[in-house]
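Run log, item B.
One chain of 236 residues. Sequence copied directly from the ordering sheet:
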Amino acid sequence: MRPSGRKLNELRPVSIETDVTRHAEGSCLIRMGDTHVLCTASLEERVPPFLKNSGLGWVTAEYGMLPRATHSRMRREAKNGQSGRTQEIQRLIGRSLRAGLDRVALGERQITIDCDVIQADGGTRCAAITGGWVALRLAVNKLMKAGDVISDPLIDPIAAVSCGIYAGQPVLDLDYPEDSDAGVDGNFVITGSGKLVEVQMSAEGAAFTRAQMGELLDLADAGVSELVAAQKAATA
């Protein structure tokens, strides 16, 4: 039995509320159980210096956790003093979202996705990626409506979910009690068409088999399909 009482292949309750901030070109508040992440998309008519005059657009991301997102207060991270974990996660978010992007169609402009964890209960990077795509979708919709881009630069939705082996069983969408006690922990970033973008897996206890990895991938595929449906419903 999972601590939450969920089935092995059951996601936590998912909700995506859009247009939650006034000024951002795209925004949403994604809730995956007790993990809540605010995602905003900010458009700039410029690109990093290494892309200047290339005709290519860019999507990047920043990630952070509010001081009381967790059980005890954390100190705020200054940008130049970010932990290795924070830097790794924001690079992951950027890489993931660019995997579903036609950078030529976007044109020479940058969209920055800010992901701020309001409340954490496991799977924050996955929620940030899933919500980040929604914010990106909304920002691109405004570009298209204004006629600033001719063809849709978002070629495939991107979503992410965690899976792991808890109490000897493969489970979908780990919350904190499961994540902290899992024998195997993995994060899966997958496109709406079912292609893998990134897989992060590690054995926290005993090593895992290829067959077990296949079981976790099957769970992730099904979970991402549900998340993509939620993304499309939120942005329809």
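Observations after the first pass:
- DSSP finds five helices and nine strands in the chain.
- The first helix runs from residue 84 to 98.
Flagged for discussion on Thursday.
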